[in-house]
From TrEMBL, chain A:
CDD domains: Tryptophan_synthase_alpha. Pathway: Amino-acid biosynthesis; L-tryptophan biosynthesis; L-tryptophan from chorismate: step 5/5. It comes from Xylanibacter caecicola. It catalyses: (1S,2R)-1-C-(indol-3-yl)glycerol 3-phosphate + L-serine = D-glyceraldehyde 3-phosphate + L-tryptophan + H2O. This is Tryptophan synthase alpha chain.
UniProtKB/TrEMBL annotation, chain B:
HAMAP family: Trp_synth_beta (MF_00133). It catalyses: (1S,2R)-1-C-(indol-3-yl)glycerol 3-phosphate + L-serine = D-glyceraldehyde 3-phosphate + L-tryptophan + H2O. The gene is trpB. This is Tryptophan synthase beta chain. It comes from Xylanibacter caecicola. It is an enzyme of class 4 (lyase). Pathway: Amino-acid biosynthesis; L-tryptophan biosynthesis; L-tryptophan from chorismate: step 5/5. Its cofactor is pyridoxal 5'-phosphate. Keywords: Amino-acid biosynthesis, Aromatic amino acid biosynthesis, Lyase, Pyridoxal phosphate, Tryptophan biosynthesis.
Amino acid sequence: MNKINELFAGRGDRKLLSIYFCAGCPSAESTADVIRTLERRGIDMIEVGIPFSDPLADGPVIQAAGTVALRNGMTLERLFGQLEEIKDEVSVPLVMMGYLNVIMHHGIERFFRRCSETGVSGAIIPDLPFADYLADVKPTADRYGIRVIMMITPETSEERVRFIDSNTDGFIYMVSSAGITGAQSSFDDAKQRYFRRIDAMNLRNPRMIGFGISNRQTLESAQANAAGAIIGSKFVTLLNETGNADDAMDRLYEDLRR
Amino acid sequence: MKDSFFADENGFYGDFGGAYIPEILYKCVEDLRRAYLPIMESDEFKAEYRALLRDYVGRPSPLYHARRMSDKYGIKLYLKREDLNHTGAHKINNTVGQILLARKMGKSRIIAETGAGQHGVATATVCALMGMECEVFMGKTDVERQHTNVERMRMLGAKVHPVTTGNMTLSDACSEAIRDWCCHPSDTFYIVGSTMGPHPYPDIVARMQSIISEEIKWQLQEKEGRDYPDCLVACIGGGSNAAGTVYHYVDDSRVRIVLAEAGGSGIDSGRTAATIHRGEPGILHGSKMLVMQTSDGQIEEAFTISAGLDYPGVGPMHCNMAAKGRSEVYAVNDDEAVLAGYELTRMEGIIPAIESAHAVAALGKVTFGPGDVVVLTVSGRGDKDVETYLANKDMAGEYGKF
C-alpha cells in the first residue's frame, strides 16, 4: 500500500502535520539530515521541494531557498541519489514538490520510476494542468504506485472540486488563500468559511491545508477543518535562521503554541 | 487537413502552447478563454477598438518605401512604421484592445510586465485613458537601463515595481506579474505584452497585433497592385510584432517569413537570447515553448543589448512556425544590430528601437531575389535607445565616427 494512503487510513482522529523544505538549502548535503530529523520530531509527512529557477507559485522565502539550492549545485538527479541512500531508514511518506519544467526535462516516466526506486510516495506539481494530469501523468504515476497530489483553492468551483476529488487519490492539497506561499499571521473569517464549506462537501479524499500556516491560530483553524496542515515557508525561514533542523523544529513548535 | 498555424481550441500550436498555470489561476484564465472571442468579435468591441486605433494610436501606420535602403539591398523595401504609433511602438495596438477586454470583463485593476518599458508605457497609457489602476513589474536591471520609460510610466500614474529576483530582467518581471495575479485573481486583469503566457494570451495578443498585417495587405495593394509581399521581416523576442506582421500571411506560401532573434554576443557565446536557436521544449510562464535551459531543466538567463528581446523563451506560435519550417529565423548579434540601427538612421532618417534594428540587420543575412518586395516592421522608435547607440558607437563603423 502507498504510504500516503496508509497514513490517512491509520490516523484515526489525530490531526497531521506535514513539513516542506527545499532540497539543497541551506546546504546541498542537508537533505538526509533534515528528513531524519523531521521524522524523529514527529512530523507525519515530508514534502521535498525540488528547486526551480522560476517558481511561479512561491513567495520570497521559497524563491530564495530555491536560489540558494541551485547555487549549491542541487539537481533533481542528485536529490534522488540522496533519497536513495536513506530510503530504508525513512518510514513517513515523502512527497516531491516541484515545477513541471524540471520534471518534464527529467522525463515524466523516468521521474516516477526514480520516485518509486527512492522511497518517494507522492508528487505535487503546482503548474500541472488537470487535463495533462489525467491524460499522461496519472497513468504513468499509477504504474509506479506514486500519488500525484492536486490542489484546490478558494477560486476553485464546487463542481471542479468534485471533479478533482473523484480523479485523485492520496489527499487533496487545499491552498488556504488566493496567493503564493508564505507565512500569514491569521486566517480571517472568509478563509475559515471556505475551509468549512469544503469540509462540508464530504469529499472522498482527505485534505491537507497549506500556504500561510505559521502560528497557533493558522494551525488550529487549518486542522479544525481538514486532516492536517502543511507548513512550508515558516519552516524554511527557521531552518535558514538556525542552520539546523532540530533547532528549527524547537522554534517551530514554540511558535505554533503562540 | 492542413495544419493551422493558429491556436487550436486548447491553445496549442502544434506541440507548443497550452495553459500551464497554478490552480489558483485556473478560474480567471478559464473565464478569459470563454470570454475573449465573443467579446473581440462583437460589433461593440470592434467599433471601440477601431476608433481608438484610428483616433488615439494614430493608425493606419504608414507603409514607407525606403528608397536608399532598397537600392543598397537590390530589393523594394517597405517599412511598416509601428514606430510612429502613439507611445512609440507596436505595443499599444495590444494594450488598447486588452484594456477594453478587461473592462468588459468587469476587472478593476491592471497589471503588466515590461522589459524595455514599451509595453509598460503602453499599458500605463491606456490605464490613464480609462482611469484604471495600473501596476507594472519591471526587472531592476531594466529599470536602470530604460530609465526614461520608467519616468513616463510614473508620470502616467502607474506604480512601477522593480523586480530583484534572477538577473532582474523581463523574464523575472513576468514571474513577478504572475505571482501578483495569483494573489488577486478575481479583480485583476493581466495585460500580457507579447504572444506568450497561458492560452488564450498568445492568441489574444496575435489577434490584437494582426492590425499590422491587415494594413500591409491594403497598403501593398495600393502601392504595388498586389496585396502580398515576397518577404516579411520582423524582430522576435516574445513574438508580438512578428505575429502581427505575419498574421494574415501565415497560410500564404508565396510570402517568405524572416525573423530576427537576439544573438547577444553570439549564439555559442553563452550570452545570447536566441531562443529558437538555443532553446529546447519546456514550460515557462504558463506555456510550452522553446526555452533556454540547463540539462537539469533550470531556466537560463538571456543576454542581449536589447531589453525588449531579453527573454529565454519565445511564444508558442513562433515555436511551431519555426519547427514546421514556415519561418526562417536568424540570430542577430548586438554589434550587428547597433550597426543596422545606425544604417537605417543615416540612410532613411529613422532611428529605430534597438529591437527593430535586429530586423534591419537581417536584411544583410537573407538572399533575396532581385527586386523582391520586402516589408520590414519597424516595431518601435529609438528614442529610448539613444544612450545605448551612443555608448556603442564603436560597433557602428563609419557611422560611429562623430
